[in-house]
């Protein structure tokens, strides 16, 4: 669900939508780097514990890597993804890195994006996205994750960005369906839920404490329903989650919600209903 952080669709309301799109966008990424010391984050009982963690990072290059491609050799037009992976692991290997893993990932990426020159440093990335995934932090799904996008000037100064919290592939049993046989008992519904925040949000550690309880709240909302359609379930969930946001002082920018019924259609993976809603 937080793929929009790494591969945003044209229609996705990101801070970059007001900028003209280049004909060719060059991106260098490493995905799901295993952090050697894990990360300290809330577990399923919301206690801060060291646990396995995966890091992903993407750098949107300011220009394409034409010179590296033409020479078939790495140069300052691109980023060495092998070195990037090593620096991410190294940056997150000490206790400070564990506690601020997302910031440590950015430190490694920003170091790789800065190319020293006699006439002044060159910063080759205009946008960097980093994601910290915690597979053991989810009680019902494949993991919880915190992602962040940072925008940069040509000198490497931050100019904006946003953060995203994701509950991935929660499997929640609920009574759902229009067919008579579907009213006989619950079936699994797969829920993906993401919340975008403006750049002025708090630290990743503060956000984890605030946001990780949303998984149980979301699962409880879905489990208690008995609707016939996914459309109604989506609309109901968005209405029910609003007072939860308000009670916890959560002020989203955009909320993303996707429901799948994997058992509903015999010869398809699943029917899917998905919404992306600006929140105010």
From TrEMBL:
<protein>
    <recommendedName>
        <fullName>Dihydroneopterin aldolase/epimerase domain-containing protein</fullName>
    </recommendedName>
</protein>
<dbReference type="Pfam" id="PF02152">
    <property type="entry name" value="FolB"/>
</dbReference>
<dbReference type="InterPro" id="IPR043133">
    <property type="entry name" value="GTP-CH-I_C/QueF"/>
</dbReference>
<keyword id="KW-0289">Folate biosynthesis</keyword>
<feature type="region of interest" description="Disordered">
    <location>
        <begin position="1"/>
        <end position="21"/>
    </location>
</feature>
<dbReference type="InterPro" id="IPR006157">
    <property type="entry name" value="FolB_dom"/>
</dbReference>
<feature type="domain" description="Dihydroneopterin aldolase/epimerase">
    <location>
        <begin position="165"/>
        <end position="277"/>
    </location>
</feature>
<dbReference type="GO" id="GO:0004150">
    <property type="term" value="F:dihydroneopterin aldolase activity"/>
</dbReference>
<dbReference type="GO" id="GO:0046656">
    <property type="term" value="P:folic acid biosynthetic process"/>
</dbReference>
């Amino acid at each position: 669900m937080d793929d929009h952080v790494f591969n945003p669709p044209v229609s996705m309301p990101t801070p970059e939508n007001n900028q003209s799109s280049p004909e060719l966008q060059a991106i260098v990424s490493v995905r799901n780097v295993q952090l050697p010391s894990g990360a300290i984050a809330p577990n399923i009982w919301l206690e801060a514990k060291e646990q396995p963690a995966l890091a992903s990072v993407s750098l949107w290059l300011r220009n394409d890597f034409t010179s590296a491609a033409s020479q078939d050799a790495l140069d300052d037009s691109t980023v060495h993804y092998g070195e990037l992976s090593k620096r991410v692991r190294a940056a997150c290997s000490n206790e400070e890195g564990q506690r601020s893993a997302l910031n440590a990932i950015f430190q490694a990426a920003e170091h790789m994006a800065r190319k020293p020159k006699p006439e002044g440093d060159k910063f080759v990335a205009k946008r960097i996205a980093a994601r910290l995934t915690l597979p053991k932090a989810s009680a019902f799904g494949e993991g919880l994750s915190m992602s962040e996008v940072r925008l940069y000037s040509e000198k490497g100064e931050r100019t904006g960005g946003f953060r995203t919290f994701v509950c991935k592939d929660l499997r929640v049993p609920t009574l759902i369906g229009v067919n008579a046989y579907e009213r006989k008992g619950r079936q699994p519904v797969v829920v993906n839920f993401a919340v975008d925040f403006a750049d002025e949000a708090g630290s990743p550690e503060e956000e984890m404490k605030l946001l990780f309880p949303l998984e149980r709240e979301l699962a409880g909302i879905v489990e208690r329903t008995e609707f016939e359609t996914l459309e109604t379930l989506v609309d109901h969930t968005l209405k029910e989650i609003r007072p939860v946001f308000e009670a916890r002082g959560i002020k989203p920018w955009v909320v993303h919600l996707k429901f799948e019924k994997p058992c509903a259609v015999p010869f398809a993976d699943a029917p899917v209903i998905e919404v992306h809603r600006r929140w105010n």
